Amino acid sequence: MEADKEICARPIPNQLNQTKMKLSNWFKPFEKITPQQRMIIGVSWIALIAVYWFISSSGTTHLFPTPGQVWDGFKSLYSEGLIVHVFSSLSLCLQATLLSVIVSLMLVYLSPLPALRPLAVTMSRLRYLPLTGITFYLAILVSNARTMQIGVLFIFMSLYFITSLLAVLKDIPNEEIDHARSLKCSRWEVLLEVVIKGRFDYVIDVLRQNLAITWMMLVTVESILVAAGGLGVLIKNSDKFMNHGRIVALQLVILLVGLLLDWLLRTLRKSVFKYSTF
To answer: CA-to-CA distance for 89 and 216, rounded, in angstroms?
Structure first.
């Protein structure tokens, strides 16, 4: 009887083979995995990063601040008004994003007109300008520092936003335009139905991608006006005093807020445009 129990307790060879096949699938290109497997992989990577953090922060000389130092940085930042600075950065980003979306969409939606297309294409080419050149000319035109912050983010985001939207328009199949014309749609109706309405879900996804670039630029732009506050100002002050625990804590806050914005836009696209497949 005991021998029978031992035999029953042993894994079936087929089950072992299936387990090995599942693990091997994780290292095959373009292999589809289950949500549970995806979660296991994600948790495994988080555990590896945590272990590396503890190892690299141990000893007298270490590369990263210890988790305790980062936690102390969170507490000191919270006592100094971290929430207020987060909302200041979000307000700056929101104002620049709204202006960028309005202007960029107008230029791109009018780009099918031959007379206005060079304007959108030229704006797209200007994305190779360095940020220093943009701030130099804005300083001459604008006297208010907060307006200058918004202007820098607006120009920076618009150049990349226009570039991405022009690529979306270029990828519209000619069959869709021909189909609209076969339905007796005028040229302006084709622009409205195929370009504007038919690709608005792409606009939200392009906005999501470019918002990440804009959010990354906040640290640089907010240093223009220290009095206005923001996460960039906190990082600059922490770097001045070489407080690495606060710097890592702020970077984690910026990362989490950016991921939250990305999740909100992705959820909005999926809920509003349920037919979207990308």
So the answer is: 11
In tens, the pLDDT along 143-165 reads 777 788 888 888 888 988 999 99
Distance CA 172, CA 160 (A): 19
pTM assigned to the model: 0.74
Confidence of residue 277 (pLDDT cuts 50, 70, 90): low
Residue 103, pLDDT score: 93
| CA 83 to the chain's CA centroid | 21
Question: What are the chain's domains?
Answer: 78-272 (1.10.3720.10)
Any idea what the Cα angle at residue 166 is, between residues 165 and 169, rounded to 5°?
A: 90
Crossing angle of helices 117-125 and 82-109, in 10° steps, is 140
Give, in order, the Cα–Cα distances in Å from 198 to each of 10, 150, 191, 269: 58, 31, 9, 13
